[in-house]
Structure formats: C-alpha cells, structure tokens
Design goal:
Blueprint (H helix, E strand, L loop, with lengths): L16 H17 L3 E2 L5 E3 H8 L4 H6 L1 E5 L2 E5 L4 H10 L9 E10 L11 E10 L5 H16 L5 E7 L3 H15 L8 H7 L12 H7 L11 H16 L5 E2 L11 E9 L9 E7 L3 H4 L7 E7 H7 L11 E5 L5 H12 L5 E3 L6 H10 L4 E5 L1 H6 L1 E6 L4 E6 H17 L4
Parallel strand pairs: 1-5, 7-8, 12-13, 12-14
Antiparallel strand pairs: 2-4, 3-4, 5-6, 6-11, 7-9, 9-10, 10-11, 14-15, 15-16
Helix pairs in contact: 5-9, 12-15
Bound molecules: histidyl-adenosine monophosphate (HAM).
Amino acid sequence: MAFRAVKGMNDVLSNDSPRWQRLERAFQRQARLYGYEEVRTPVVEHTDLFVRSIGEVTDVVEKEMYSFQHHRDALTLRPEGTAGATRAYVEHKVYARETVTRWYYLGPMFRAERPQRGRYRQFYQAGCEIYGDPGPVADAEMIDMLVGLFRQLGIGELQVAINSLGGSATRQRYREALTEYFTPQVGALSAHAQERLGKNPLRILDSKDPKDQAVAAGAPSMLDVLDDADREHFDGLKRALDALETPYVVEPRLVRGLDYYTRTSFEIRSEAGELGAQNTLAGGGRYDNMVEELGGPATPAIGFAMGLERILLAMPESAAADRAGCYIMPLGSAALPKALTIAREVRARGVRVECDGRGQSLKSQMRRADSLGMRACIVLGEDELSRGVVQLKDLEKHTQREVSFTEIAEQVRALCTVSAEAGGA
Ligand code: HAM
C-alpha cells in the first residue's frame, strides 16, 4: 500500500528548503534587530486554553481544531501561537522579572480548514509578541518591522490595513449596537449568522457568506463608538505610522477572526506573486486582556503572526542562487583517505563539503557537483596524490589550477567566502 501525506499537510523537500531557510533567517534577523528573543512552546496544549483565549464562538474553536482525548486530558494541536506564548508568560511569571518582554517564535500550526492555495491544515507561522508595552508606538513599530521585512524579501504591492476594536467597555457597547442593527434583519442572514447573533454578533462582520456581507455592509462602525482613550490610542498609532512614512488604510470592518483582540488590529496583504485569494500575509493586534484572563496581572500585549507558505508564494524567485560549498572527487580508492582528510580540513574552515566515496566516473561526479550548486571542486587522482597536489576547479568561473595539499583548505575557504559574502550562504 502506498501512503500519502494527510490532506492539507505538505512535505518540504530539499529543493525547496533553501527558500524556507532564507525566509526564516530573514525573519529571525529582523526580529532580533527589533529586540525580540526566541521562545519555544509545545505544539499541544490543553483544549480549554484555546477555547478561553480565542473564544468559543469563532471559526477556529467551533470547527477547525484538531482536538483529542488522551487519558483524562482534553488536548489540541495548537491552531496559533499567541495562546501558548501567553500561557508560558503567565506560568513562568515572566512579568515578575521583566517590565517589557519581546518574544518571537516560529513553527507549525494546525487548523482543519478546507485546503486551497495558501490555506493548509498544517502551516507554518512566524510571530512576535510584546508583553508590558501599552503602545501605540509599539504597535506602529511592529507594523513597520513587518513592512520592512516584506520589502527586504522583495515582496511588492503591499497593503497595510488597520482598525481599532476598542477596549472591553467599547466592545460591549459595540456588541449592543450590532445586536440592535442585525435583529430586525435577522431573516436576511444565513443560518450560521442567525445562530451567532445572540452569542457573538461581531463574528457576522467577517462572515464569508454573501447574504451576511450584504446586511453587514450597513452595520454601524466600531470607530463611531470608541471612547476617548481608545480614540487617542488609535490617533497615536496613525501619527507614529505617518512619522515612519508607512502607508496604511483604515478599515473599520477589520475585526479579524479571533476574539481576543482589543484596540489595534491590523493585516498586511499583497497582490504579488502566486498568492491568489489567500492574500493576507500577516495579521495581528492588541490583546490587552489575555494575560489577566489566563491568571496573570493586568498586562497589555500586542503581537502578529505571518504565514510562511503565503510569503513564499509572494516572494519572487530570486536570481539563480549563488554557488557555495565544495565537492571533493577522489579518483580511485588510493586517493580516498587523503580526500577525507582534506574534506575535514575544509569543513573546519566553515565550508560545506561533500566528498564522493562512491567511486563513480569523473563525468558523473562532475554532474552531481554541478547539480548541488557547488562553487569549488577538488579533483584528486593518482598522479596528484604522488605529487602532493590537487586540481582546484572554480565551477562558477570555469577555471582550474593546481594547489598543494598544505594550501588547499585555505584556498577553498577563500573561494567560498567570496561567494558567501556576495549573498550565497
Ligand atoms: P491569524 O490571522 O489567524 O492570526 O493568522 C496569521 C497568519 O497566519 C495569516 O495572516 C496567514 O498568513 C497565516 N495562516 C492562518 N491560517 C492559515 C492556514 N490555514 N494556512 C496557511 N496560512 C495560514 C493569528 O494566528 C494570531 N495568533 C496572530 C497574533 C499574534 N495576534 C496577536 N499575536
């Protein structure tokens, strides 16, 4: 029987992994430049954690979680990273050690959605969370960091959408205003929206059903019910984005699919590459109540997550990757021991090496060196062995020279460092 991967869950094979690594490195570098440190939390958490933080009446909790019973524990594969990070922040009393905490993370998330381009059941997120900074400058800087990262990756046609969802009191007022608005038109809503009306009318605003969208188009705007403190925060965010010259649009209907947001919410989209309909690269916002709701002291928080698969779809195929690394070809079994020691010396200088011990012909070894994208190639035959030299080929410039055993490791390092500095490694 031939096995296949689970629907909506993908393999990343080695021809694709260099692009993944480039993206992950660029994210990690950007996050560190902005003062974030890495946190790693488990892939599995107690189901209740997600129900409490994401909200019972959300698509994620209602129908997308991979939940299972293990002995007495109700567990779930994490659908996102914020709940676990905040659980860890509270559990380890990080607030008692640091006034402001900046964390980044990277890893697989799981949602049982209908798979399509840019939407998968196992997907990778990279995200950042800040605890202890009430903003709005932190909010603006976070958006600016993301835009900067996407630009570095060559992703164009970016759009930053922002909104304010207000604090708890505002949210309550807005729920009432929405209930009042939707109730007389309940018959025009989808069955699912009718069900949500009594429980969480906010979720009707992001319904994908055209019937709901038509009714929602006339709904009151959250921005009209913001209180003074919320409005001041939102104005501060806009001023800071203006100062950073980061363009944005205000979208009063941007409610996002998770219930924990307060005040700032934002999404970054792109029309670039092969993205198609799933064009939201990153989404996030403030969740000033979550730390307290999970048992910690009242602590403001903001964060975002970006979907790595979507970013890869939007990233331009970079020009042919630069050559790097060294391939060693011993010709004949007598040359093998010396080839192995040279390989070790070159690796000790930080250069990737593959030494071919299969005893293949020169032609087939050359083909492999080329397909691996190696920069340097060392040929060691019986004649070279007796004279204490090797042939060093530069596979980019198509040149060849003879180098002594004592100098070869350093010569390869010099050749490969040049290609790494040009952006290869
Ligand atoms: P989210 O909007 O649910 O937010 O997801 C963030 C990003 O993850 C999306 O913009 C998208 O790029 C990617 N994504 C989500 N679902 C899928 C999927 N099924 N397949 C592929 N990519 C997907 C959150 O998860 C929040 N935790 C963000 C956050 C952090 N808010 C505050 N802190």
